[in-house]
Amino acid sequence: MSKFIQELTGARKAAGLSQDAEASKAGLNRMTIQKLEAETIDPKLSTLEVLAKVLGMEIMLVPRALRPDLEDFVRSGGRYLGQPAGVDAPTSVVDDLLRQPPESLGTHKRPKGR
Predict the structure, then answer these.
(1) Residue 26 maps to a domain
(2) CA 46 to chain centre
(3) Are residues 36 and 17 part of one domain?
(4) Tell me, what DSSP letter sits at residue 38?
(5) What band does 105 get if pLDDT is binned at 50, 70 and 90?
(6) Mean pLDDT of the chain
(7) Residues 45 and 85 grouped into a single domain
(8) Once rounded to an integer, what is the mean pLDDT over residues 38-67?
(9) Which pLDDT does position 12 carry in this prediction?
(10) Has this prediction a pTM greater than 0.90?
(11) For residue 56, is pLDDT > 70?
(12) Domain of 9: which CATH number?
C-alpha cells in the first residue's frame, strides 16, 4: 500500500494541489488526506478510487503474475505489444506513429500499412 500512497501523493503534488484542495475536490476532509499520506489510516478502496479520479488516474487491479510484464510494457511505451524481441522484430505501433509528421497525428487516421 505504501508505494500506492506515494504515487497518489506524488500525483497530487505534480498537479499542484494542496491536501486541502484535493480533499475539497474529492468531497473528503483534509485530515483524511493527511492521515492517508502519513499512512496512519487504512483507507477504503472507494476513497482511493475517488482520490485517483480527482488526480486523473485510474486504479487497475492486475494479477500478481502479470505485473512484471505489464510494468515492462508501460516502461517500453508500448513497444513490445505482442511482437517478438530482437533486431528482426516488426516495428511497433508506437514507432509507426513516431515516424508520422506531428500534424497528421491529430487526424485519427491509421498509419499506412495498418
Answers:
(1) yes
(2) 18
(3) yes
(4) H
(5) low
(6) 82
(7) no
(8) 91
(9) 94
(10) no
(11) yes
(12) 1.10.260.40
